[in-house]
Write a structure and sequence with these properties.
Strand order of the largest sheet: 1-4-2-3
Number of helices: 11
Largest sheet: 4 strands, antiparallel
Order of helices and strands: HHHHHHHHHEEEHEH
Radius of gyration: 29 Å
Low-confidence stretches: none
Number of domains: 2
Distance between the termini: 70 Å
Mean pLDDT: 89
Number of strands: 4
Helix content: 55-70%
Shape: elongated
Length: about 325
Amino acid sequence: MSTLTRPSVTEEPTRTKPRRLRGLLWLVARQHRAVLLACAAAILFGSAWIIYQRHGLLHDAHAAGLPATPVDEVDGALRMRLENTFNDVASYVGYLPMLFGLFLGAPLLASDHESGTARLVTTQSVPRGRWLLWKLGFALALVAVTTAVLGALLTWYWHAARPFVSIDWLEASIFDNTGPVLLTTALFTTSLGIVIGALVRRAVTAMTLTFFGTFAFSVVFDYLKPHLATPRRVAFPLDGAHPAVLNGSVQVDQWVGTASGKLYGWSTCVSDADSDGCRARKGIVNSVWDYFGYDQMATLQWTAAALLLVASAALLALAVWRTRRQAF
C-alpha cells in the first residue's frame, strides 16, 4: 500500500521594509522623536504664523496710507495693535532657547546615564566618542535648524514692524530674537543643559539646574549687551530738538555739559529753586547723549553671537571631557 505524501512547502521569510535610518542615527532619532516632531511642528506652524502676521501688518499699513503718510499720523489704536502683535510673536519665539536647554540639552546625556542606555550602547561595539558625537551632533543640528529658520523669519518681520515698535531695539524681545543671536543663544542654553546633565547625571535635577542657570544667564547677558561696542556721543542745545542721528538710536547714558565739554550729571540743577540760574553759573548749555545708532545693531549682535559660540564650545568640550572620563 502506497502512501501519498505532499511535498513540504518551505515558507519564504517575510520581507520587511528596510529602515531609512540605521545605526546610531536611528537610535538617536528614535530616542528624541518627541523633540524632533515638536521642532518640525514649530518650524511649520511658527513660520506660517510669522508670515501671516507680517502680511497682515503690511496690509494694514498700506491701508492706513503708509509709506506716504508719516507713522505719527497713523491711528494710535492701529499702531498699538501692530506693535502688540509683533511683541507677542517675538516673546513666543524668545522661549525657544530655554525650552531647548530644558527639554533637549539637560536630559540628552543625563537620561542615558540614568536609564543605563549609555552603558548598553557603548558595550555593543560602539566607541564612547562616536556615541557622544551622534548625540551632540543631532541635538545641536536640531537646535540650529529650528532657530535659524524662525530667527530669520522674525528678523524679516522686524524690518517691516520697526516703524510701529516703540521699545528700544536693544531690548531682549528684539535684540535677542533677531539676527544671529537667537541661534547662538539657543546653542548656548542647550550646551549649558548638556554639561549640567553630564555632571549631575540625573535628568530632573539637570532640568531644574538648567532652568535657574538659563535665568541667571539672561540677567548677565542683559547687563553685558551695552558693553559689546563703544557708544557714540552727541551734544545739542539743552532746550533744542534732538538731532537726526538719534532717530532709531538707543540711549545708553545722558549728561548735561558746558560749551567747553565739561560734563555734569543729567539731574544737575533740576531740584534747585533757580534751576536756570544754577545752569548759568555752571555754564551748562548742552544736553549730551551716549547712544548706539541703529547701524550698530548688527555689530552688537554679531559680537554677542561670537561670544556665545565660544562659550558654547567651551561647555561642550567640558561635557565631552567629563563623559569620556566617568564610568558608566
